Amino acid sequence: MLSNTNFAELLAQQAERETGILSRAFRRAARSAFLWPVEVSELVAQNRSLTELRSVGPFISRQIQNWIDKPPRRAKAVPKIRRDFISLAQARRLLATQSTWANNLRGDLQMHTRWSDGSGTIAEIADAAAKRSYQYIAITDHSKALKIAGGIDERALKRQGTEITKVNATMSKSAGQVTVLRSIEMNLNPHGDGDMAPDSLRSLDLVLGSFHSALRKTEDQTERYLAALRNPHVHILGHPRGRIYNFRAGLKADWPRVFAEAGRLDKALEIDCYPDRQDLNVELLKIAGDHGTRISLGTDAHHPWQLEFIDLGLAAALRAKIAGDRILNFMPILELKVWAQRLRNRARFKR
Ligand SMILES: [Zn+2]
């Protein structure tokens, strides 16, 4: 029986055989397959239409039906650029077998709002978090150097802080007890330096640092990662490899060394749970697990509904057998804040 991950690969291969609009439609469907909430086989068993699925119209539906009727005899190897991605259907099945795991989750540590390139307001995404019974979320809009994503400068970040204070005041009066943490996805240059003034960063609860440039380099990038981890302002390294499904393979590094350094500094590396990122992936998470590296889960949500992507990260961590006490999002809020403050104090002593 073909799984949604198998269908994704078949769709991606079909896209490579087609041209123009058809190629794009197959490519889009391949990417969407990771988001389909149920397995295609289940839909078919329930006599439901495949066009219920995102990016599946009548044409693609017929193609999928052909594959169901006559499964391709020998599966072609999945190229690296599409390997080690979990589908939402698969993630949910896995999480259902270990319900205690997902129950540990208290929050989400990467999301974007209208302040940069997201579509919701802080209040809207906090509401979505309350519906998920979270204790906290971190708002991580892009920083000023990333102009293409509407990055914000120190003044805007300060104004955003005022808005967060107001949202927190309103939230504390409602039934759902979500605390909105002040954070940022600070753009890091390939030397590991950020683009925001230290004073501005010190006013935040947490700082996520991410690379958004020179992501197609093929040489080893270990030094870049070590520098980013040693940046005294960074708590969490976001979407570490910079891979994107069927688009970019991501950077190479001596990962055991990177994870060991993160461990030494007590910093965290992220699982960006966005379906076509899933970065760190299971393969690297296993190495991180061996080094006891702290792991942060962030959906990278750009719409409030995308908080559901967290299941992909939970499933990846579970598969890689990451210990629960290594996951930042399993910490109560106070413990999380203490950890963040401890890293800051440490950086101060070193100076
Ligand atoms: Zn990013």
SSE blueprint:
Blueprint lengths: L3 H14 L2 H13 L7 H6 L12 H12 L18 H10 L1 H5 L3 E2 L13 H10 L4 E4 L14 H20 L5 E4 L2 E4 L9 H5 L5 E4 L10 H9 L5 E2 L17 H11 L2 E5 L9 H9 L3 E5 L11 H10 L13 H18 L1
Parallel strand pairs: 1-2, 2-3, 4-5, 5-6, 6-7, 7-8
Shape: globular
Strand content: 5-15%
Total strand segments: 8
Name the poorly predicted regions.
none
Biggest sheet, spatial arrangement of strands:
4-5-6-7-8
**What number is the mean pLDDT?**
95
Give the SSE string: HHHHHHEHEHEEHEHEHEHEHH
> Can you summarize the main beta sheet?
5 strands, parallel
Named once each, the bound ligands are: zinc ion
What is the terminal-to-terminal distance? 59 Å
Number of helices in the DSSP assignment = 14
C-alpha Rg (nearest Å) = 20 Å
**Which percent bin holds the helix content?**
40-55%
Structural class: alpha/beta
Keywords:
5-stranded parallel sheet, 351 residues, 3-stranded parallel sheet, 43% helix, 14 helices, 8 strands, binds zinc ion, alpha/beta
Describe the structure.
Helices cover 43% and strands 9% of the residues. It has helices spanning 4-17, 20-32, 40-45, 58-69, 88-97, 99-103, 122-131, 154-173, 198-202, 222-230, 255-265, 282-290, 310-319, 333-350; strands at 107-108, 136-139, 179-182, 185-188, 208-211, 236-237, 268-272, 294-298. The strands form two sheets. It has a five-stranded parallel beta sheet with strand order 4-5-6-7-8, with helices on one face. Helix 7 packs across helix 8. The longest helix is centred in the middle third of the chain and has 20 residues, at 154-173. The radius of gyration is 20 Å and the shape is globular. Bound molecules: zinc ion. Residues 185, 210, 212, 238-239 line the site of zinc ion (ZN).
